[in-house]
Each structure stands twice: as structure tokens, then as C-alpha cells.
Amino acid sequence: MSWWTPERFAARRGFLEQRAVILARVRAFFTRQDFLEVETPALQVSPGLEPHIAVFATELVEPFAPTGRPLYLHTSPEFAMKKLLAAGLPRIFQIARAYRNGERSPLHHPEFTLLEWYRAGADYRTLMDECEALVREVLAGWRCTRHGRWCDPQAPWRRLTVAEAFAERTGIDLLATLTDDSPDPDPAPLAAAAGLPLQPLDRWEDVFFRIMLDRIEPFLGNDRPVILYDYPSPLAALSRTNPADPRLAERFEVYICGVELANACSELTDAARQRERFAQDLTLRQRLYGTQLPVDEDFLEALSHMPPAAGIALGLDRLVMLAVGAARIEDVLWAPVSG
Predict the structure, then answer these.
(1) Domain that holds residue 148
(2) How confident is the model at residue 125, as a pLDDT?
């Protein structure tokens, strides 16, 4: 039976009406905070270079051009929004469609909605406060639920470092497995501390996520939301390294009912360092999946002109799911991508 039949749509209509209320509250929050809402193209030279994300490729055909030009649907509007920061905009937000291939589960959909916002002159701690204020306001009157768990977004949020979470849940001294800010540390000490067998191609990151997904993430954000911060530098992505401890990146994630809701950081503005990280990601993508993606050189040029800033991406579909108690992401989408 198709998603648009009256019977099937009726089962989702209440969720979708509540979705509209939540999006209206999001826009009202940022308007009061003097943010400018922006819109950037989904078609980009580079879709984002996270090595484990599969992308959608297409071709741009210009009038009278002899050949087409390869483009990609973005996995996040991040690159384009940072260019707007470089252009001089101080506070911006966007409710954007994003695209990731090969992703479909109760929490994943190939086309989904991200809320992203950026503040010039801010760091990740500023965004911790702002994200908490936003979710409290937007979800006023709702208590989040998922699979029998509940979380009150109005309760005091807990702030927990990644190292503290590992110590609490597993007894592992995570930082002891990192000797410096190497992008690819030896995975053996972490695997040994966790009692996990080490596979021949395992990287430190692989072992980290096995522990994180099985022993830590399911317990985050029950009763009250959790901000998990100070990620190890091998997981820095586009974030700035902590100047006081190069083993750490100024990055945090928000969890509610065991679900990752948002990902934020103090932005890396060193174009040379970012180029190095892109090269490492592309090498890993080639080794694991045999694919390559282009680097957005215009983004690296903009990065060298970008002011110090902090940015965050929040999954709006997941926020709605948690608020209304929906079991699947498709329950809160007006029209799902056809399977």
C-alpha cells in the first residue's frame, strides 16, 4: 500500500502536524537570537569527505557545453555555510535537506532534514548552552520517549567528557591509549583494555566505535539529555584541536534516549591542516571502498578567510521522532523516499 493512501497517511498525520509546530518554534528561536536564515544549494563540487558515508552523484549540463560536469548532493550544507561565514555573515542557520546513500533504518533515511547553525566569534562551549536552550524551548510540553525509555528535555542536562563516559561504563582510561595528536594511533592498547580481539585491518577508530556503540551510547540521555564532549583528536573531522591537550578535539554530541541528536564543534580554520585531514579521509575511503571524491578547493580558500567560529548540525527528523514517540524516521516524514 502506498504511503499516500488515506489510511496510511492518517496514521502519521498527527506526528506531521506536531512536526510543523516544532519547525515553527525552531525558526522563532533563531529569529529572536538575531540569526539570519540562509539557503544554499544541495548540488556541490564535493558532498563532504567523511570516509564512511556513501554519496549521490549526478551531472550538471550547462547550455551549449560539450560535456557535463560531475556534481554531488551534499551530505550536509556545512561547506557552503562556512563560505557565508567567510563572506562576513556572523550568525546563520539553515533547515536543509541532506542526502546520504545506502542509509535506511529506523533512524536513517537517504534524504533527511538537518538544522545547522554557525556563530562567528564563538566556540563549542557557547553552542552547548545554545543547543540546550533551543531544545528546551522547542520541546516545551513534550517528554521524549523511545523503546520504553524516556527523557525530560527540561531537566538539567548532563555534560560528560568522552573519557569520563568510557571510565564510567567500561573502566577504560581512554586518554592513556592516545600518546599525542596522531590521526591514526595504535589500536592495540585500546583493544586490550576493552578485552576485544584485534582484526588485521582494525584502526584505533574502529575499536573506539565498537566500544562506543555497544557499551556507552545506549545508556546516554536516559532521564535527561547528555552532552558528550572533548572527542579524541583522531575523530576531530572538521573541528579544532584543544590547544591545552592535543589528544582532544573541541567537539561534542547530544544524546537523548540513546539517540545521537546533534554534532557540534569549534571550527578548524587552518586550511593547511584541513587539507591534511581531507587527504587522510580520502586515503581511507580508497582503501576501504575503492572510491574517491573531489576536494572543494574553494572551500579551503574560504577557510583561510573564515573567522573563529562554532557550528552544529542537529537532526530535525530525529528531534521530532523523540518528541512524538515515533518508532521510525519515516513516521515523521511528509513523503518518504520510495523503497
Answers:
(1) 6-332
(2) 97
